[in-house]
Amino acid sequence: MGALTKRRVTILGSTGSIGVSTLSLFDEATRQGTAEVEIVALVGGRNVELLAEQARTWRPARVVIADESLYQPLKERLNGAGEGIEIAAGTEAVIAAAEMPTDWVMSAIVGSAGLAPTLAAARKGAVIALANKESLVCAGPTLLETARAAGGHVIPVDSEHSAIFQSLQTACAHRVARLILTASGGPFREWTLQDMAGATPEQAVAHPNWSMGAKISIDSATMMNKGLEMIEAAYLFDTPPERIDVLVHPQSIIHSMVEYEDGSTLAQLGPPDMRAPIACAFAWPDRLPWPAPRLDLAAIGSLTFAEPDPIRFPAIGIARQALTAGGLAPAAMNAANETAVAAFLDRRIGFLDIAATVSETLERMEAVGDLGAGAAGDILENAMTTDRSARRVAGDIVAGLGAAR
Ligand code: NAD
Ligand code: MG
């Protein structure tokens, strides 16, 4: 393999935590002379200030802001420095940016809003570095099949899936017995149920090991993040739910493991820094030399493990059930969770209400036959219709809970 990784790159969600880490990695690797990056498009949601600054630094061919009302502010901030950079805004423009010819697309929009642009990129056959786990949860098989059919690849960026992906890159990657997803346990790992009931958004976003966007931070606190990741792993690695386990590992050093049928377990380790799985997805099948933080196990001293507590963290069980039910249940679960997390961040419901809302949404939709596994028609359309229904049902539940507070 050559020493220089050269890529044309599009970043969907460049202003978020993963987007910023991606550009930081490019900056480091470019300085080292190990990567050459040409940015095709940068896409952000609402943060005009940061998006304009990124565009000035990286000179993409196109810069897109998802919120249409921010077109003019973006244009003004780029004024003068924006020569040669196309500016666009709105949902359609996000999809059009995802379709631009490129080698590598970082999919790092948060939530099911990332599905349509990620699918659009998949149709073009680019390598997709997938951070946006919600798009896999909503329509995993379709997304993977679309990429495959177009001659592209989906390389996981989620640290657990990157670990499993790497632990499967051996000549003897047959006879997998189990995938073991490690979980930090989040900020409430040792809290009582009673204390969790009164947890505030500030306490819930304060993750012990990772600095991430608000939504995934709350998912880590409820452990719905691990539930979403279980579904993500099932699709990515074509593994049934009963062969995927969750193990609490508070130090976040072992990022996940693959147990083979001969009793061997392979794992990938590293300091908790998302630039490592991003680098892996960027250079794959090569490795990217960059000044990565190195693992100092002697300094860490000990690694510990525990079973997750199903009483305080019911979200893992809810996700397992949705995955087993199949069809549109994971899409409904994801949308209900996005709705409930937004309500919790807005202080409209309590922390424990998040999982309760998701579970109740799935029960109500199941009861009226809204989660049919074999629904005919376009999968993206089905997933998005289910997404909207689940948001309505969860919205009603949230309103009821809010009124009762
Ligand atoms: P974030 O909230 O920090 O960033 C989200 C990005 O998406 C921002 O750029 C935002 O502007 C953009 N965005 C939001 N809504 C949009 C829309 N409708 N259209 C276009 N752009 C939109 O989130 P994050 O922590 O960077 O996470 C991004 C994704 O990566 C999530 O799916 C998350 O689960 C996954 N992920 C994140 C981490 C992490 O360490 N942050 C780790 C693993 C996986
Ligand atoms: Mg993860």
UniProtKB/TrEMBL annotation:
Binding-site list for 1-deoxy-D-xylulose 5-phosphate: K133, S159, E160, S184, H207, S220, N225, K226, E229
Cofactor(s) listed: Mg(2+); Mn(2+)
Reactions catalysed: 2-C-methyl-D-erythritol 4-phosphate + NADP(+) = 1-deoxy-D-xylulose 5-phosphate + NADPH + H(+)
Domain 1-deoxy-D-xylulose 5-phosphate reductoisomerase N-terminal: 9-140
Presence of keyword ATP-binding: no
GO biological-process terms attached to the record: isopentenyl diphosphate biosynthetic process, methylerythritol 4-phosphate pathway involved in terpenoid biosynthetic process
GO molecular function, one term: manganese ion binding
Alphabetized Pfam families for the sequence: DXP_redisom_C, DXP_reductoisom, DXPR_C
Binding site for NADPH: T15, G16, S17, I18, G45, R46, N47, N132, E134, G213
Enzyme nomenclature, EC number: 1.1.1.267
Biochemical pathway: Isoprenoid biosynthesis; isopentenyl diphosphate biosynthesis via DXP pathway; isopentenyl diphosphate from 1-deoxy-D-xylulose 5-phosphate: step 1/6
Top-level enzyme category: oxidoreductase
InterPro entries linked: DXP_reductoisomerase (IPR003821), DXP_reductoisomerase_C (IPR013644), DXP_reductoisomerase_N (IPR013512), DXPR_C (IPR026877), DXPR_C_sf (IPR036169), NAD(P)-bd_dom_sf (IPR036291)
The DXP reductoisomerase C-terminal domain, residue ranges: 269-392
Residue numbers binding Mn(2+): D158, E160, E229
Occurrences of domain 1-deoxy-D-xylulose 5-phosphate reductoisomerase C-terminal (ranges): 154-237
Keywords: Isoprene biosynthesis, Magnesium, Manganese, Metal-binding, NADP, Oxidoreductase
Family: Belongs to the DXR family.
Role: Catalyzes the NADPH-dependent rearrangement and reduction of 1-deoxy-D-xylulose-5-phosphate (DXP) to 2-C-methyl-D-erythritol 4-phosphate (MEP).
NCBIfam families cross-referenced by the UniProt entry: Dxr
The name this protein goes by in its record: 1-deoxy-D-xylulose 5-phosphate reductoisomerase
Gene assigned in the entry: dxr
